Amino acid sequence: ESLAGGATRPIPAAFLLLRGGEVPEAAASSLVLLTAMLMTLHEGGQMGHDVGSFQSMWTLVKGVPIHAMVSGNLLTLGADVLVLVHGLGLSHRYMMPVAEELARDHNVYVPDLPGFGDSGHPPRTLTIPELADGLAAWMRAAGLSRVALLGNSQGCQVIANLAVRHPRLVRCAV
């Protein structure tokens, strides 16, 4: 969209779709994230909602919106960062009781792996190495490195793969 003085302002992808226009590839990823958030609202969820001292966070990773709960009382810089990884058929919700306890003394992130919970679903089911790569991509997008990871069930396999494939992201694993 052209503005006075030749400046431009991007047209929201959702508006282009409503008008029957084509959506540029760069806007398509934003539209995927918007769609996921709207679907969450439609299904009774909330964007940016608080659960105890946690807040919902969305990060677009390789075109897939990844949802995570983040401790709302992020401590001072340098505080330990913990990433809790759920198991097969679960989501962040399973890890929240432990996360709430750990958040008393740590910065805690509880992502939904791609294809699970409130995160977007890739075109096919991901393998353990692909889930590890997805977790690594999310960690990088969220600005996390050298963190402690705590896993449950299949989450432990994902963390072990992450440690082998992306060792610079892992400080320790439980």
The number of helical elements comes to 5
Uncertain ranges: 1-50
The helicity comes to 25-40%
Q: How would a crystallographer describe the biggest sheet?
A: 7 strands, mixed
What does this structure look like?
The protein has helices at residues 13-18, 25-42, 92-102, 128-141, 154-165; strands at residues 50-51, 54-61, 64-71, 81-85, 107-111, 147-151, 170-173. It has 174 residues and is of the alpha/beta class. A seven-stranded mixed sheet has the order 1-2-3-5-4-6-7, sandwiched between helices. Strand 4 (81-85), helix 3 (92-102) and strand 5 (107-111) form a beta-alpha-beta unit. The longest helix is centred in the first third of the chain and has 18 residues, at 25-42. The protein is globular.
Task: Give the key terms.
about 170 residues, alpha/beta, seven-stranded mixed β-sheet, 5 helices
Quick recap:
With 174 residues, the protein is of the alpha/beta class. It has five helices and seven strands; from the N terminus they run H-H-E-E-E-E-H-E-H-E-H-E. The longest helix is centred in the N-terminal third of the chain and has 18 residues, at 25-42.
SSE layout:
Elements (H helix, E strand, L loop, with lengths): L12 H6 L6 H18 L7 E2 L2 E8 L2 E8 L9 E5 L6 H11 L4 E5 L16 H14 L5 E5 L2 H12 L4 E4 L1
Parallel strand pairs: 4-5, 4-6, 6-7
Antiparallel strand pairs: 1-2, 2-3, 3-5
